[in-house]
């Protein structure tokens, strides 16, 4: 049984409540182009999608993004920094805090309508205060319409990459969409996801039958895998990246072969400090092998103002979900990436 609680207005109605000012829309379009140019190879910069595991409260997120903007000015000749403002949190067992979209206050009950308005205000403030547009995860495909005018990068999580609706909706997105390898680590499944997203599709979306032209910027994200016994197995090493490159070639018609390395999750077994070592190993491989250099386009890094995590929102700027690098380590790492890119 479904108990109706709150009627949610359409995305068009929500967006009409507070449209993006023209100046901020122009900033976002320019940021979109920077990210697209990296994925297509038009730019030799690296994408760095960096920020907290989940955005649970606006104030620390905006403080983080302001710091990131200052850092971006130092590295913009080599890197495109995209703040990670993930507003929906997947749960392995389906219970617990599910992100700002459905629960804008992690200490109180769900309120999706308030959550939608909160994340739109947050994403808009991030652009206004920093000049940086964000990345978000498409955990629920139908929700993408509520933020499509505010984000520059879309991530598809490991639990979602095999889902048909995620693939179909991604085919209509005109931004880089990173498909993480599934929890099993299957490269063929990952390539199939990218193939579906890059292909024209016809399907039901909201209250319409829609047709898409395919998204040429859909690409691979390697985040490690989990074996049948629950062990984390990394896949950021040279051999796996080369397997992905070969799989792109075998698929034949895929555009813009690209790999982003997720330095956390099963690649680090959520030992957040290991992200530093993993990034440096990948950078070394980029320096030593031309093919590896061409296909690896950047990193995903989990980072916040304070390192680690906490169960409840007590310390300002500390994750309430997965543990993250602190700001000092993050700043050093990004400067190091820029130097070695």
Arrangement of strands in the largest sheet: 2-1-12-11-8-5-4-3
Specify the number of helices: 10
Using the coordinates shown, work out and report the CATH topology.
TIM Barrel
Structural class: alpha/beta
Largest sheet: 8 strands, parallel
Summarize the helix and strand pattern as letters: HHEHEHEEHEHEEEEEHEHHEH
Mean of pLDDT: 96
CATH arch. level architecture: Alpha-Beta Barrel
Contiguous low-pLDDT stretches (5 residues minimum) are: none
CATH class: Alpha Beta
Number of domains: 1
Q: Strand-residue fraction?
A: 15-25%
Shape: globular
Radius of gyration: 19 Å
CATH superfamily: Aldolase class I
What distance separates the N and C termini?
54 Å
The count of DSSP E runs of length 2 or more, i.e. the number of strands, is 12
Residues in helix, %: 25-40%
Tags for this model:
38% helix; alpha/beta; 12 strands; TIM Barrel; eight-stranded parallel beta sheet; 341 residues; globular
Write the layout of secondary structure elements.
Elements: H1 11-17, H2 22-40, E1 46-51, H3 58-75, E2 79-83, H4 112-130, E3 134-137, E4 151-156, H5 164-170, E5 177-180, H6 187-198, E6 201-205, E7 208-212, E8 218-222, E9 225-226, E10 232-233, H7 238-251, E11 259-262, H8 274-288, H9 290-295, E12 296-302, H10 327-340
């Amino acid at each position: 049984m479904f108990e109706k609680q709150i009627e949610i207005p359409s995305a068009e109605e929500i967006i009409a409540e507070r449209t993006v000012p023209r100046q901020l829309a122009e900033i976002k379009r320019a940021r979109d182009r920077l990210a697209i140019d990296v994925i297509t190879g038009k730019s030799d910069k690296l994408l760095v999608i960096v920020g907290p595991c989940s955005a649970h409260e606006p104030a620390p997120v905006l403080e983080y993004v302001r710091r990131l903007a200052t850092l971006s000015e130092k590295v913009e000749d080599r890197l495109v920094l995209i703040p990670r403002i993930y507003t929906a949190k997947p749960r392995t067992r389906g219970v617990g805090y599910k992100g700002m979209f459905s629960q804008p206050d992690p200490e109180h009950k769900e309120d999706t309508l308030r959550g939608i308005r909160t994340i739109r205000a947050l994403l808009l403030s991030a652009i206004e205060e920093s000049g940086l547009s964000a990345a978000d995860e498409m955990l629920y495909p139908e929700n993408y319409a509520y933020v499509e005018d505010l984000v520059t990068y879309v991530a598809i999580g490991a639990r979602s990459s095999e889902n048909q609706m995620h693939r179909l909706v991604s085919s209509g997105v005109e931004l880089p969409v990173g498909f993480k390898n599934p929890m099993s680590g299957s490269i063929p499944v990952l390539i199939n996801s990218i193939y579906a997203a890059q292909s024209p599709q016809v399907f039901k979306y909201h209250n319409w039958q829609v047709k898409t032209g395919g998204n040429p910027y859909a690409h691979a994200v390697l985040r490690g895998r989990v074996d049948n016994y629950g062990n984390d197995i990394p896949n950021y090493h040279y051999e796996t990246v080369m397997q992905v490159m070969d799989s792109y070639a075998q698929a034949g018609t895929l555009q813009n072969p690209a790999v982003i390395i997720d330095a956390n999750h099963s690649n680090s077994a959520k030992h957040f400090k290991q992200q530093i070592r993993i990034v440096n190993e990948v950078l070394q491989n980029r320096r030593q092998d031309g093919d590896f250099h061409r296909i690896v386009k950047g990193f995903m890094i989990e980072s916040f103002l304070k390192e680690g995590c906490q169960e409840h929102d007590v310390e300002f700027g500390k994750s309430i979900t997965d543990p993250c690098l602190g700001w000092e380590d993050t700043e050093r790492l990004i400067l190091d990436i820029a130097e070695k890119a």
